[in-house]
Design goal:
The complex is a heterotetramer, with two copies of chain A (317 residues) and two copies of chain B (302 residues).
Chain A (H helix, E strand, L loop, with lengths): L8 H21 L4 H17 L4 H9 L6 H8 E2 L16 E8 L2 E8 L5 H6 L7 H16 L4 E7 L6 H5 L2 H13 L5 E10 H5 L6 E5 L3 E3 L3 H9 L5 H8 L3 H7 L4 E3 L10 H19 L4 H13 L4 E3 L1
Parallel strand pairs in A: 3-4, 4-5, 5-6, 5-7, 6-8
Antiparallel strand pairs in A: 1-2, 2-3
Helix pairs in contact in A: 1-2, 3-11, 4-13, 6-8, 10-11
Chain B lengths: L1 H7 L17 E3 L6 E3 H6 L15 H8 L5 E2 L4 E3 L11 H12 L5 E8 L2 E8 L10 H17 L3 E7 L7 H14 L1 H5 L4 E10 L12 E4 L5 E2 L3 H8 L10 H6 L5 E2 L2 H15 L6 H14 L4
Parallel strand pairs in B: 6-7, 7-8, 8-9, 8-10, 9-11
Antiparallel strand pairs in B: 1-2, 3-5, 5-6
Helix pairs in contact in B: 5-6
The chains are: A alpha/beta (317), B alpha/beta (302).
The structure holds zinc ion (ZN) (2 copies).
Chain lengths: 317, 302, 317, 302
């Protein structure tokens, strides 16, 4: 501990484990161990402030067990959420859900990528990877948002669209493209937030925001680190190296102009204080909704188009 | 004996004149076989308190269950005619007369203005008691008028479907009601007003293939049979038995065709909540206070 | 033959068979039988003019082997038909097909219910009964028609939408309703013609015309005669009686105001002279297209709405 | 040896400088093993005259096969940059340089103005020879510009897709090209101008999930592999082998995803016919005469 090197996320996790063990002992034995616990807790807090997370460590935080899912934010930030189901064509996808709700009081249309909370729920929701039905439901909800002038709030959290045989049969690529197109045509404001993982086209399908925000420990990329590692080194275990190359963290994306704002997470990650994480997300989304609220439908449409039109890096001779 | 019949038919069958009076009696639920005190059944929106069976409702009882207070009734002045001189085992006018006597209304539809938990609405309720809720010219006309008038008044439309489909006795004229109602609903779309349909047991045929399924939000009652072709016709086509639960509300939810299945006892609050959201109306004061205190408790600074 | 009763369709068919037999004999034997054939042919023609077809006989004519299908008319009346496939969601229905073409020179979007011509083709096309994919393809083609300002020409010929288990799973009723809605929203003129059978919602799905025409021996009804007979008498063999009750023939529909015009067929039915039947259909559709051509998109939209809004029979107290 | 390589790769691989020259030689078709005279192959749009195999084409050859005469080329001035300092087994600039040398163009796209059987069009052709036709910022920008310029000029857009998907080396910037291209195509929609995409072997990933599949009409080449997820990834997901013909053009037609499969030798005439119809252009004089004489013969009076 006397080493001058910056602490790693691993160090923090070891310290957290010590504290939990001591707290457990204190509780079960009835002994007051505050004399030991207090300095440990202080040191942990201090180290958290110093910690410099690698890109791969952030990817791991974005996936950590207990990280809040979309519905955990929705429960804290909205009232009167009415989940609407089905694509009116084939099925009801559980990985991409939504419906109208009041976001800190404002009527909005929610589009949520939902990973699932327990094992059964996760399987049912394919760990947040949609079939085409999910995107087609999103399109239907966007139709309603337009009709009833409801701003769209999209919470993005997926490793990507589901790569299944039936998904291909039913036009996974087509559904994503149509969702991008539909969202770009909305005559209401759209605010998107990457709250965990932003994997490829499956994430972008509901990511056509007038504003795109990202949580501090979320990632957003054209391919997952594992996918990139498989392609480059034929070895998905090289995902940490791929994560570095892909520059997929929130600060990277802010620098590229792909997101407007990084939403700070509680020290150590959103899972350590979900209420606080939700408060930060709620405030940021509400603030952007309020700012956009002064514009007209034409401005929402053209502003969104202009925002995406200028993304990209090239030179011209 | 009247009670036996009541339960055998799985819907309240009462004298239309006294439809709102509930006899002080017990009956046996046809699904769970439990004894149910009829006044309890009525107080519980005609859902069996033991097994949740949603009994079929005539239009008047449906209006009572759905709305805050009696409707300002609009339907009743448009009457059916026998344009085709249709005669099968009896004449169409004879059939109509029987259904009119049974239900006390000129055709299979009740429309009017009312409110649901304080939200002003126009309602259109199909009456399955009247000739199986079949859609002829009058049903089409009343639904079209209700939609157009709702649009003029700036009110949303809530429609309760219960129908075996288009009415054979008006042949192609019935068929055209599918187009007429669909087109009349455009008036609501044009003004950005919500149209919610509630599909109840049974909703089939031309009603499923027109106004009932183009609603902004489609609600279904638990267990309701909903489909285009009838189960018997399909069985003849595929020549094998149909799977358990086929064409039931739960099956349709799974196949992406309805937005939600809502227990009848929960419908008023869910519909009101949805309508308020879609119409940018505020949360009622009592609920807003509860919500804000809850929100405050979760908005801890990071 | 000396009987004063009006000839039935059955009499005509018997005479036709005699003539065919004699012609065959003449051909195979090399004998000239014109002396017998000429008067027979003349009598047949005379009787055809007198024949009074029952409603059920017309239903049978609408179904007779060799009656021209939609594609037989399209081959004769259009050039440059480009069939477009698929609903972009699930499949490509073969019972409802379509695409842009030139209708006697005019660019239009065709929607065709196609029954099939040989056994294999008929099975592939489910004898003209669509699955939901057919109606969803029609909706997509109507989107294109609107975008490219192509008038829609719909040829209706179906006993009804396919009553299958999978059709129900994929929302047959929903697809038909959406097709009716989409067609009512078109900002181009629509001309529909019932060329054979017009069975129920499955026919109406592409029947929202500014003008609706019907061939002389076609039928259009809320239910097939067999279906009605099954319901009324629990006996589909009573279809002839049901056909009478349903008043489903072209003159009935003209009287009810459900169609604007009856397109005459060659004496004895369209199958006896397909070229002539096609010429009559082509002329009528083209004439209505030309008449509508002088209106504006708003007039096409509101005219169509007004047309259907007034259909129905009731009294008001 | 160059020819062996040509056929092993199933696409013409030639010196880009001399791309339009065809060597006076024979080769063996990798599918049917027949010997093909290369000049015949070139004359037949690079479709094997024996088995119909559609050989992959670089962008220049594709333009020759598709258009009446050489394009007025628009692309070529926008060049890729290494914004992310991406380095895997080699650096991104090294990769780019190799691809640029091989193809003679700055990135995987060729755009310009031309005509197809006399119909004026803007074309955008992806070059699979350049880094597997991957879409980075330059591909996105050139497609966006082509669409916008077509809209300004009142011309339709014909796009030929051939791509493994978005370009990994530009990470999220590549991903954003999916949105950028989709949005730029709105300019054509707004003016009611046709956009036709031609999906060739292979078209996968982010290209399938954006501009390539929102075309008004989607044409596919026979046998082309078209999909979102790659076959290997899907196989890992489902842990069983994929069915014969999975993700091929014929499979997609059956599943309702493409409008038509058109043999490359037929594409010019089919595309021209379709474009003329959608743009209300008359039939060319020669064809009109043939058609009217045919129509006259069938328009017998009843
Ligand atoms: Zn019960
Ligand atoms: Zn070959």
């Amino acid at each position: 501990m006397s080493s001058p090197t910056r602490p790693t996320a691993e160090t923090l996790r070891t310290l957290e484990a010590h504290i939990r063990d001591l707290e457990g002992t204190a509780l079960s034995s009835g002994q007051n161990l505050d004399a030991a616990l207090s300095p440990l807790r202080e040191q942990l807090e201090r180290l958290r402030g110093q910690v410099s997370l690698s890109r791969w460590e952030r990817v791991q935080l974005a996936r950590i067990a207990g990280r809040p899912t979309a519905l955990e934010y929705v429960e804290r930030l909205t009232s009167e959420f009415v989940e609407l189901h089905g694509d009116r064509t084939f099925g009801d996808d559980q990985a991409l859900i939504g419906g109208p709700a009041r976001w800190q009081g404002r009527p909005v249309m929610l589009l949520l990528q939902q990973k699932g909370r327990d094992t059964k729920d996760k399987i049912r929701r394919r760990f947040g990877s949609s079939n085409p039905e999910g995107y087609r439901k999103a399109i239907r909800l966007m139709d309603l948002a337009d009709k009833f002038r409801l701003p769209v709030v999209a919470l993005i959290d997926t490793q990507g669209a589901y790569p299944g045989l039936e998904a291909e049969e039913r036009g996974q690529g087509w559904a994503i493209a149509q969702s991008i197109q539909r969202m770009s045509r909305l005559r209401v404001p759209t605010v998107c937030a990457v709250i965990g993982e932003g994997g490829s086209g499956g994430a972008l399908a509901i990511g056509i925001g007038n504003r795109v925000l990202i949580m501090e420990n979320a990632w957003y990329s054209v391919i997952s680190p594992e996918g990139a590692a498989s392609i480059i080194w034929k070895d998905s275990a090289k995902a940490p190296e791929a994560a570095e190359a892909l520059k997929l963290t929130a600060p990277d994306l802010l620098e590229m102009g792909i997101v407007e704002e990084i939403i700070p997470e509680p020290t150590g990650g959103a899972h350590l204080d979900i209420d606080a994480a939700a408060a930060a997300l709620g405030e940021a989304v509400s603030r952007h909704l309020d700012e956009l609220g002064t514009q007209s439908p034409d401005e929402w449409l053209s502003g969104r188009a202009a925002r995406f039109r200028k993304l990209g890096a090239f030179t011209e001779s | 004996m009247a009670l036996d019949k009541f339960f055998r038919r799985r819907r309240p069958q009462v004298n239309p004149v006294a439809e709102t009076e509930t006899p002080d009696l017990w009956g046996k639920c046809p699904q769970c076989k439990e004894n149910v005190y009829l006044r309890d059944l009525a107080a519980g929106a005609y859902v069996c308190p033991s097994c949740g069976l949603h009994h079929r409702l005539g239009a008047s009882r449906r209006a009572e269950v759905l709305c805050d207070s009696p409707l300002e009734q609009w339907s009743g002045r448009v009457h059916p005619v026998d344009a085709l001189k249709f005669h099968d085992t009896e004449s169409y006018p004879e059939r109509l007369k029987r259904a009119q006597l049974k239900t006390g209304r000129p055709d299979a539809i009740l429309t009017g203005r009312g409110s649901i938990e304080g939200v002003d609405v126009v309602v259109a309720i199909m009456d399955f008691e009247f000739s199986g809720g079949s859609m002829g010219s009058v049903v089409g006309e009343e639904i079209a008028r209700a939609a157009e008038r709702a649009a003029q008044m700036g009110l949303p439309l809530v429609l309760v479907a219960a129908s075996g489909g288009a009415r054979m006795q008006e042949s192609a004229l019935s068929l055209m009601q599918m187009a007429k109602t669909t087109i009349a609903l455009e008036a609501l779309s044009a003004r950005g007003l919500p149209y919610i349909s509630v599909l109840t047991d049974p909703t089939t045929g031309g009603v499923t293939a027109s106004f009932a399924t183009i609603a902004d939000v489609i609600v279904a009652e638990p267990g309701a049979l909903i489909g285009f072709a009838g189960p018997r016709v399909i069985q003849q086509t595929i020549r094998q038995s149909l799977p358990e639960g086929f064409q039931r509300a739960e099956f349709l939810l799974e196949h992406g065709m309805v937005d939600m299945i809502v227990d009848r006892r929960q419908q008023r609050s869910d519909l009101a909540k949805l309508l308020r959201l879609l119409m940018h109306q505020p949360v009622p004061v009592a609920q807003a206070q509860a919500a804000s205190s809850q929100a405050a408790s979760t908005q801890v600074a990071p």
